[in-house]
Amino acid sequence: MEMNIALLPGDGIGPEVIDQAVKVVKAVGQKFGHQINFTEGVVGAAAIDATGEPYPDSTHEVAAASDAVLFGAIGDPKYDNDPKAKVRPEQGLLLMRQKLGLFANVRPTFTFPSLVHKSPLKLERVEGVDFVFFRELTGGVYFGEPRGRNEQGTKAFDTNMYSKEEITRLARMGFEAAQKRRKLLTCVDKANVMATSRLWRETVQELAPEYPDVKVEYEFVDAVAMRLIQWPKAYDVLITENLFGDILTDEASVISGSMGLMPSASLGTSIKLFEPIHGSYPQAAGKDIANPLATVLSAAMMFEYAFDLKEEAQAISDVVNLSLSEGYATEDIADGGPSYKTSEVGDWLAAKILA
Amino acid sequence: MEMNIALLPGDGIGPEVIDQAVKVVKAVGQKFGHQINFTEGVVGAAAIDATGEPYPDSTHEVAAASDAVLFGAIGDPKYDNDPKAKVRPEQGLLLMRQKLGLFANVRPTFTFPSLVHKSPLKLERVEGVDFVFFRELTGGVYFGEPRGRNEQGTKAFDTNMYSKEEITRLARMGFEAAQKRRKLLTCVDKANVMATSRLWRETVQELAPEYPDVKVEYEFVDAVAMRLIQWPKAYDVLITENLFGDILTDEASVISGSMGLMPSASLGTSIKLFEPIHGSYPQAAGKDIANPLATVLSAAMMFEYAFDLKEEAQAISDVVNLSLSEGYATEDIADGGPSYKTSEVGDWLAAKILA
Ligand SMILES: CC(C)[C@H](C(=O)O)[C@@H](O)C(=O)O
Ligand SMILES: CC(C)[C@H](C(=O)O)[C@@H](O)C(=O)O
């Protein structure tokens, strides 16, 4: 198969971890006989520095022409404490999501037996956790208008907005995923307060009869924020709006103890994008110490979700598991034992795939 | 001292737990020589059933004329899955907060040594946790206009809105609390996405020089959702807007393992209200099994915050600690050992205060 993959490394540790994913993807291509073409684009602070724009048209063209996008991370602290900055790296991320139509962010949470002891939660609560969030990614308060300030600058406002269509397409993905899993769907909203949430709940209620094999539960976002920590095993598939998804998927990411390993996919009408859920981790940038496994596992998701190549995806998961069981890992998971550089881990994984 | 206390038991287990707090408050009054007058009002589903309104004027008059309000809980599942219901119990809560001007919800999270083993988190992460949230309670998306649907009903929208004044008065409370504690203030926002959050951050940045002894940190809400579980001891005072506060304070409530014991205060320009942070727990209503300690400790907060009576507050905390160490507690904290009814715990506490 021929595949055109756009690489958008972004900021901070983004470039380093993308480099390792590329090594692994190339090795898979070589082993399974695929021709893989890479094209690169800048995004985020890196793009502002280079072009003045956080998601330049040239990058969008690269991404839109590709079969799949591998994305690193975005964000630079020099922009964070300047609330008046006109251009911010995050705008690049939002523009990218919007222009590529990536309306569903899929974030699995699962455990690696060799890492579960790193969870802040007690073993019995977290062992065997396996749920997946479908977060709406191109609507809600992230894009709603009007937003801004009054003339004197003494009042600020944002608009949260959802249409039935936006909710329906995301919810259907959740229902379908639930059908292939444990058949439990949790709709997370704040229907006791927000008009948008009431439309979410109503829309999901209307869809439910089409999926009679799926049990649907409706929970308020504040309750889920509690129960995710108390009883994370109770969940299977969760669907939610953009902002709630932002908060809850990050909360979920620390549950398994393997935050540095969690991949994600952003799906839409055509293009599919894959990225680690960790951020740009600026303190580690350029030091060759960042854990590349989340990005490598995102590449595995890419083979499965974008190209329907399950064997290739499995080959990547297998070497990642091997690296964990053999302790060939970066310092964040080495537990004080011998550890390896970001680039060494990438080389090792690629070599094992070809071995 | 003469004190006029309004009792708003609300729904579910509200009436039962308020009953126990009343026993304890009466005992304190008797012991310390205060004359305490109680007046009752209906609110929530109970009020809808009785009057058609979730926060009737008669209840508001009772609350507004009081020196302090003791509130139980609100919410009835019969309203939850009916997104089209015109009147909802929660509206009573929101109206009450708004009409009483309760703009700051103060929620401490701390541990009880005898209960910390119940935390879903590992002991070393949670032992000694001690932070407090100041959640803005009368603004944001809970009250912003416009909100609703388009004519066809296919689109819904909510408005989040904050003024500098609203942010300032809440932030000042946080700064002042931090000065009396460990001098660390965390401003929680989503300034990389939301206009309201940028006003929050800007306003807090402008106030910070007035409190030079307080170290201020700015963190995104998604990062806090993670770090609250990973490193809960890192926090001291957190300030945030209404919706983020709703989610994060509920998340925080399960950290200590003593959710059934966590009290809260809602403060404003005049009236002060005190309530347990747990909900109406309808499954337990009427069974005399609900844990009354959070409400009893809310009454302790009332003596301290509303009447500046620290000794009285301490007397209540002391008997609560005694009940825990002697195992005179409801089944949720009895660990399979002998347990006592809600009403028995209330009687016991009141008797111990007078002993
Ligand atoms: C960087 C930020 C704008 C972004 C978001 O809020 O969506 C991030 O937190 C994420 O979850 O991808
Ligand atoms: C019941 C609901 C409207 C309320 C809120 O969201 O404020 C509750 O969750 C709370 O935190 O007191």
From TrEMBL, chains A, B:
It holds the Pfam family Iso_dh. This is 3-isopropylmalate dehydrogenase. Its EC number is 1.1.1.85. Belongs to the isocitrate and isopropylmalate dehydrogenases family. LeuB type 1 subfamily. Pathway: Amino-acid biosynthesis; L-leucine biosynthesis; L-leucine from 3-methyl-2-oxobutanoate: step 3/4. It is an enzyme of class 1 (oxidoreductase). Binds 1 Mg(2+) or Mn(2+) ion per subunit. The gene is leuB.
